[in-house]
Write a structure and sequence with these properties.
The chain is of the alpha+beta class. It contains three helices and four strands, in the order βααβαββ.
Length: about 100
């Protein structure tokens, strides 16, 4: 970290290996004075929910998209709904019927 004088790091939770790995990375980076941004990828509601929860630990607004931005159908309902300019997240409930085709 010191070798490259890193000031800010963008972490992608599911690219890095999941919630526990990101939490460890956040703790390590912050202990070295590095600021953190949590960003998403092309995610369904379930992973988008956890990305948003992790983004609360970041130093800058996270990169999380609203429901329906990338996918018309999702395995969870009411996760990442755009409401009055803010994303509203509720604990995700998986809609089993959305999994039937797979």
């Amino acid at each position: 970290i010191e070798l490259y004088n890193v000031k800010v790091v963008v972490l992608k939770p599911f690219r890095l290996g999941g919630i526990d790995k990101v939490q460890t990375a956040i703790d390590t980076l912050k202990s070295h004075g590095v600021k953190v941004v949590i960003g998403g990828m092309y995610e369904y509601g379930l992973s988008r929910y956890f990305t948003a929860m992790l983004a609360r630990k970041g130093d800058y607004p996270g990169d999380v998209t609203p429901a329906g931005y990338y996918f018309e159908q999702d395995v969870v309902a009411h996760s990442g709904i755009l409401k009055e300019g803010r994303l509203e997240f509720r604990p995700p409930l998986v809609d089993i019927t959305q999994l039937q085709p797979y």
